[in-house]
Amino acid sequence: MRAVTVNGAHAVSAVQGGERAVRVRASSGHRTRVLRLLLALCSLTALFATATPADAADSPTQAAYLADRLRENPVYVTDQLPREVPRSTAPDFARLAKRTGVPTYVLVLPMQSGTDGEQLLGAVHDRLGRDGLFVLIEGTDIAEATAYGVRVPADAAATVALYELAYDAGPLLSFERFVDVIAQGGERATARAEAARETYRDDEPAEMYIGPSDRRNQSFLTGSLLTGVPLLIVLTAGYVRRSRRRTGAERRVPRWVVPGAAVLTAAAIALTAPVVFDQTKSSAAKPPTPADLSARVERVAAGLKQDPVYADPESPRVLGSRQLDRLHERIQDFRRSDGGGPVYVSLVPQTPESESAGDAGLFAAAVHAKVGEDGVYVVADPDDGTIDVSNHGLRLDSNRLSFDLPDSVTLGDSRADEADDHLLGERLDTLMTFLDKTPRTGRPHSESTPAAAPRAADENALPPLFATDFWPGLFVGAFAALLLSGVVAGVTWIVRGLLRWRSPAPEPSGRLSPTSPTEPPTSYLRRTAYAELTALQGRFNDPDDRARAWDHLDAALLLVDGDPGRARQPGTDPATLVAVIVLARAGRAALTGEAADLCCGVNPLHGRATRRHHVRVSAEGNSRRLLPVCEPCRDTAVAEPGGIPGRLLKLPDPSLGNTRLPYYDVTDGPLTAVPHGIARLIDEVRETAGVH
User: Fold this and answer.
1) What is the pLDDT of residues 359-400, one digit of tens each?
2) What is the pTM of this model?
3) Contact (CB, 8 A) for 165 and 205
4) Running DSSP on this structure, what letter comes out for residue 419?
5) Distance between CA 587 and CA 678 in Å, rounded?
6) Rounded CA gap, 642 and 81, in Å?
């Protein structure tokens, strides 16, 4: 015998001889009335519960659906992110999950606003009824990780993955870092999490991938270097060669060296750039397979063939049972109406990472093609609450659907923004009313074919390095090389000028003829005379030097009374300064072993002469003189005899003010002996000074 007490009534049951007898005895009339009241209250509670709009008892909840998927496979990758996390990556997540050492369940879902990851994992765990490590990855980040019945450092591992990796590391690498920290154990994982938090508190890790704009910058830099550096080598070498030639220090270098160096540099840049700029894609996403890109469309189309309203089971429910019943009734009424037809409603999120790249019209067209039946296709996003409507083959005024549908229906209002369900049930009901009132047309209308989504294989691929801005870079590099070489030459010229002004140095013999003026100012003669004389004086290091050029130095010093500094002081006439310059240069030439017996009689500042030649010395008439000439003056005398008068050295005549005459007509001093040779000039200087 077993006694059971229920709400104050006692029941006694007995089983005897295969017959079951039940006797119930009421304790009192008062208790019977109480029992009836309680039963009535329970009935009312059940009635109100069934009337709740958010009730979704007729369809599986989000947690129940995900628990069923994990029961089939401990790793579930959504089909809604094929451009970022293709479903074909599920084996990679599973391989990593085995390294945790505990049962691990992984959910990869789209990022959902208003969803608490911890609550979702808890509900999934309760539905699944299994202990282990539960990980929720939303998009590309580890959103939540919770351990049920196992001891693992889930929080520390999630912290390390968050801080140590760049935001573009991708879900696979983030999960791999998470798993590695889990395998380290509690103490080491906690220490690593603290270190990561301290290290990257203010500065995030550097990005792992570059974008198209960064690749264009790389291409531009490569093109600029490819033309700029070799051209700069050629221009700089030419400038250095000219500078050495002017200073008389030119070195004989094979002609092919500079072009060869430029070509080798260009080849090195062309070969090195792809190694340095070796990035080929802009994100960690793996290319999806065709099956990845079609999975969600096929899933939704299959659901719509069974029911004209398809609610994404991976997303929170936004329509209650009464709202669903109401929507089904409205759809049936519209289907039976004059000029009406099927209406298919897809409550599915639209994200840039989906197969349609977030284009609801493109998604509707793809679903229409899979369903294979014309109708109005409605795409309602349970995440952001937007509603898109496309007419495919019904006799409806498509312009009215496209342009007159209120924003309160397609986008929602402030009330919809604040509501968790975005008031989609109410707005879809308004949409059905709008469809009922939409004018019918004589023939079916369809939406124009939407533009195809970007190819997933190309979406994350970077353009080639030798493309895009590489070609403008070639021109900019050449221009920059020209500009830079010009700036360097200008700065060098200014610096050398300042150095010459502060510490003048004699001109090399190779530059005398093209740089020596025909009407030199007195300041130039003073500066040059001092530089040449001090340079000659500083070369006397041994007795052999004295033997070779002592007469030249002695005569030059006689002209300045033995003090080279007087050459820079006012008072010395230009003819004397020219004589000092000629003697000093001849002395320096003698020290180097060059023949210095003759000085150019056209312009003594030209330095050494090679031979004597009859030259025209007057622009009027045909007056000629036999003068020693340097190579440039000889070439001029042969090719253009009339050009010699313009090359004659002219000095100011004190008796005629600022009038300048040929040097041999201005003075009767030692300088007139220049056409007769250096030895004669030395003798004239000594005779004038009274030295024998």
Assistant:
1) 999 999 999 999 999 999 999 999 999 999 999 999 999 889
2) 0.65
3) yes
4) S
5) 10
6) 89
